[in-house]
Write a structure and sequence with these properties.
25% helix, 4 helices, five-stranded mixed β-sheet, alpha+beta
């Protein structure tokens, strides 16, 4: 199963279903299907989500694409992304990964019975 690490402060938002997308730069490609989030610093904490869509675009387009343009104007978006990727620039290409909540994912008919999270 594909997996991504996520900083501890954002992990509760994944668990609650509040966070249903992520933006990645220069990381392993993610494809639609099952994905395991692993909490950085506490690898026992995981969440399984179903990736519905992966889209490449410039960082400058990502906030509007996920409906967060008002919350993430350019200075806030850049500051937040540079927390994880210090060298990222406004026009760099990123992968936007959209997914179902962990609860929605568990209700899928093909949810693997042997997974935890």
């Amino acid at each position: 199963m594909q997996q991504l690490g996520i900083v501890p402060r954002l992990f509760p938002q994944v668990e609650s279903g509040e966070k249903t997308s992520t933006i990645r730069w220069r990381e392993a490609r993610i494809e639609p299907g099952y994905m395991r989030y692993i909490c950085d610093g506490d690898p026992a904490r995981t969440a399984i989500v179903w990736v519905t869509r992966c889209t490449d675009m410039p960082l400058s387009s990502a906030a509007a694409f996920v409906g967060k343009e008002q919350e993430w104007p350019k200075p806030i978006m850049l500051e937040g992304m540079r927390e994880h990727y210090p060298d990222i620039q406004w026009d760099d290409p990123v992968q936007v990964i959209e997914y179902l909540t962990p609860g929605e994912t568990r209700r899928r008919d093909d949810f693997p019975a042997s997974t935890h999270g």
